[in-house]
Amino acid sequence: MSRTVGFVANNAARTMSTITPGSKIDPKELFVGSDLSERYVKYRPKLPVEHVKTIVELLGRRPEVWLDVGCGPGTSTQQIIGHTDKLVGIDVSDTQVAVANKTFQHPSLSFVQGSCEKLPAEDCSVDVITAVQAAHYFDLPAFFKEVGRTLKSKGVVSLICYPDPHFPTSPTLTSALDHINHTYLRPYFPDSRSHYFSTKYSNITLPFTQHHQHSLQIGLPISYPSLLDILSTWSGFQNLCDEREITLEQGVHVLDQEMAGFMTEE
Ligand SMILES: C[S@@+](CC[C@H](N)C(=O)[O-])C[C@H]1O[C@@H](n2cnc3c(N)ncnc32)[C@H](O)[C@@H]1O
């Protein structure tokens, strides 16, 4: 499966327009709860190491400082260990950071609670900034301003968006999953998620002087039970369970039924 990756180097700041928010969902409150973070560690895909190596090649030197913003419980940050002298995972959610600290330890690695709008780094001190499956939750103009402030000259920022899971041998199941992803759960995600995530970031304008797009392969588990495991980590799913005051298991049953109903209608 392919995924789209945005790279930029250099830091000539310019403005970009932001979307008009229509939903009241605050991305900063979506990823709270150690249960969610533990499920992340178990079920979410990891950043392929080849992509980490591509970033280092693009930088053209060994990175001294690398920030992974919106790191969650370290799912992808762990893949960067060993490729930089200092690695800092940053996430707005206390519980994501607590689980990351408990799960992954290395002398070069730390996880801190912080926001993409105010990165915990000095001016011109960072070689690489990554955001894996996270930029669609950010206030992008504020984040890009911070990227411009903290990146060294000819630093690299990479916004990574995974492809939607799909079933090569079952187009019907793939459409049912698309229905859950982009229609059924849509009200339970912030507008920014629908706006940027559904296009896999192709509508994000990077306000920097060089811009590269890369597509790489990523392996995702493809069985139906493992798909339900992945769905149970989605913030929109968690939001649905909270709003309907149902348990995780009941929520999984709701999605299972919705997909079955969709496939019968097709
Ligand atoms: C879908 S998760 C991705 C986690 C991880 N990077 C991965 O690959 O599994 C998005 C993460 O972005 C974080 N996030 C959302 N808004 C943020 C912000 N303004 N600043 C920092 N982190 C933020 C959330 O708390 C959440 O952990």
Q: Can you list the ligands bound to this structure?
A: S-adenosylmethionine
Within CATH, the superfamily carries the name Vaccinia Virus protein VP39
- What gyration radius follows from the Cα positions, in whole Å? 18 Å
Number of strands: 7
**SSE class:** alpha/beta
Q: Number of helical segments?
A: 9
What do we call the CATH topology?
Rossmann fold
Give the overall form: globular
Spans of at least 5 consecutive residues whose pLDDT stays below 50 are 1-22
Percent in strands: 15-25%
CATH classification, class level: Alpha Beta
Number of domains: 1
In CATH, the architecture is 3-Layer(aba) Sandwich
Order of helices and strands: EHHEEHEEHEHHEHHH
**Sheet with most strands:** 7 strands, mixed
- The overall average pLDDT, rounded, is 84
| Spatial strand order of the main sheet | 4-3-2-5-6-1-7
Distance between the termini: 25 Å
State the helical fraction.
25-40%
Write up what this structure looks like.
With 266 residues, the protein is of the alpha/beta class. Helices cover 37% and strands 19% of the residues. It has a seven-stranded mixed beta sheet with strand order 4-3-2-5-6-1-7, sandwiched between helices. Helix 1 (34-43) crosses helix 3 (94-103) and helix 5 (171-184) crosses helix 9 (248-265). The longest helix has 18 residues, at 248-265. It is globular. It starts with a strand and ends with a helix. The structure holds S-adenosylmethionine (SAM). S-adenosylmethionine binds at residues 27-28, 31, 40, 44, 69-72, 75-76, 91-93, 96, 115-117, 132-134, 137-138.
